[in-house]
Design a protein that fits this description.
single chain, 550 residues, Quinoprotein_ADH-like_sf, globular, 46% strand
Length: 550
């Protein structure tokens, strides 16, 4: 097993806050894990297990001694109990349309238990213990932008309105475990002059000072990872178009630009899909750039003024699918590139949107795509092959076309599989449900090409992040957004490993994965890069619900 360039503090996402125990010996580090929108014209959220984390660190220790992962909203404030191992956590945000959603949680990091003083609460901006530690005070936003006569057209005034609420955190309250119903008192507003100023320095700066280091070594979520040879690995993340590492952990090359790398495409050569960032009024725009990796570095091949996803075939062709949700009613935007013949062909494979048409199969003999029925639809999808001349050949429906909502496949990921049973694909995804209250239902299966004969199938509890075929081991590896890693016998479908993954003893998510010679290169949501043999994974995860990958 190899771990490549560990960060200063392990088990963190993007660090958004730092809070220190009055004794100075503990730091509470708040971090956020990104949703899987890699590249921007792809989106998969179903069953995501990690979004916001509080990790507790002792001075000089890289690994947290406790973590709390049970919040669903951004964390705004923390306070340590004056005498007990408890942490008061205030969280929340505007929902983008009307409500200020919030959470207020007390976490006992020794026992692992937590309680919520209120059954429901709007966004919590500040929270504090009193000197006794038995009373909580929190400052919260209104329930919604029009609450109790607020004028939603005066947005600064809405944001400047905070209410003081109080709650019991005595031993009796912990024993009762009965959340109270919160009623905001219109007279209990907090004057702006009474509000403490935000910390002037970034949390990473304060943490570096606390640790006594010049700066924190940090790395964002790994967006893609690819073997570039038996001893070289390519990765993409926020701070580069492409980084290349040796399996001994040495960084061999760093390619930066005005954006970041989103996909690494292996075909006859290696291409990198970069995302171009804009400034000013176009700040949310994400345009695509396609680069080729050469002996002299990354060379720009083409620039696109929109969001794309790409795939590559072993003969060197590249297929780009345009996210048509960003440009309603636009003309055909798909593209087929054949660098060997210096040809570019404009295609219209059909409607593409980020939740429904991403597949992510590269390095296969064919170019695969998903197409709805009709092609202008995102429903009743078929697996298709895009021929060298641009013709689209339909193979078979992704799910049984019985016209039920569950026949609508979403948030998919695939891998090409070829072994003694012939050529096929493994595909995992989500069954659509019209009700948000229904439990998640997903699938993973292997079907043969071109017949569509199904060899095996399993239900899944979260959307897939990455699939890979390990021909030497005869396995299909599949990672999911609930933190689960499956190793499945490619021929029989038997599950050889079914466990959630940890690094340093704490949960993580595998966002990217590639296989070579019986080893997996893994990239995680907390910026970790791990190379591990399948044999070690199978041995570590047998008969256990967790497997350590680092």
């Amino acid at each position: 097993m190899t771990r490549i360039m560990d960060p200063t503090l392990h088990a963190t996402g993007r660090i958004t806050g730092a809070f220190f125990h009055p004794a100075g010996d503990i730091a509470a580090v708040v971090s956020e894990f990104p949703l899987l929108i890699n590249p921007p014209a792809r989106a998969a959220y179903g069953g995501t297990a990690l979004r916001y984390r509080v990790g507790l660190y002792r001075r000089g220790a890289a690994v947290p001694f406790a973590v709390f992962d049970e919040l669903r909203l951004p964390i705004n404030d923390l306070d340590f109990h004056p005498s007990l191992p408890r942490l008061l956590i205030g969280a929340g945000s505007y929902d983008g349309g009307y409500l200020f959603e919030g959470e207020l949680v007390v976490w006992d990091w020794q026992s692992g238990h937590n309680r919520r003083p209120f059954a429901d609460i709007p966004e919590v901006q500040r929270c504090r213990y009193d000197a006794s530690g038995e009373r909580i005070e929190a400052w919260v936003r209104p329930w919604n932008e029009e609450w109790d006569g607020l004028d939603d057209s005066d947005w600064p005034a809405v944001l400047d309105t905070l209410f003081r609420v109080q709650a019991d955190d005595s031993d009796a309250a912990w024993a009762a475990q009965t959340p109270a119903v919160l009623e905001l008192d219109p007279a209990a507003t907090v004057a702006a002059a009474q509000r403490p100023a935000d910390e002037p320095s970034p949390p990473t700066t304060r943490l570096a000072q606390w640790l006594g280091v010049p700066a924190l070594e940090c790395r964002s979520a790994i967006r893609d990872i690819v073997w570039l040879g038996p001893q070289r690995i390519g990765v993409t993340h926020d701070d580069c178009l492409l980084d290349i590492y040796g399996t001994d952990g040495t960084r061999l090359a760093h390619y930066a630009g005005s954006g970041y790398g989103a996909e690494i495409l292996r075909g006859a050569g290696v291409h990198v899909h970069g995302v171009q960032l804009q400034d000013g009024p176009e700040a949310y725009r994400r345009d695509s750039r396609l680069y080729r990796l050469t002996d002299d570095g990354l060379v720009l091949v083409r620039a696109y003024d929109d969001e794309y996803t790409f795939s590559a075939s072993t003969d060197g062709r590249l297929l780009g699918r345009r996210n048509r949700l960003r440009a309603p009613g636009s003309t055909a935007g798909d593209t087929l590139l054949d660098p060997a013949r210096d040809s570019v062909r404009r295609l219209d494979i059909g409607h593409y949107d980020c939740f429904n048409h991403y597949l992510g199969i590269s390095g296969a003999p064919q170019l695969f795509a998903l197409q709805g029925t009709p092609a202008s639809s995102h429903e009743h999808k078929y697996l298709c092959i895009v021929q060298p001349d641009g013709e689209v050949r339909r193979l078979w429906p992704l799910l049984k076309p019985d016209r039920t909502p569950a026949s609508h496949a979403m948030e998919c990921r695939g891998a090409y599989v070829e072994d003694a049973l012939g050529a096929g694909v493994a595909i995992a995804g989500r069954h659509y449900s019209p009700s948000v209250s229904e439990p998640y239902q997903g699938f993973i299966y292997r079907k043969q090409l071109p017949s569509g004969q199904e060899l095996w199938r399993h239900p899944t509890a979260a959307s897939p992040s990455s699939l890979a075929h390990l021909p030497e081991a005869g396995l299909v590896a599949a990672a999911f957004l609930d933190g689960r890693l499956l190793l499945i016998d490619a021929r029989s479908g038997a599950r050889r490993l079914d466990a959630k993954v940890r690094i340093d003893g704490w949960p993580t998510l595998i966002y990217a994965m590639d296989a070579r010679d019986g080893h997996l290169a893994l990239g995680t949501a907390d910026g970790r890069i791990v190379v591990q043999s399948v044999e070690a994974l199978l041995a570590a995860g047998s008969d256990r619900p967790w497997v350590e990958i680092g």
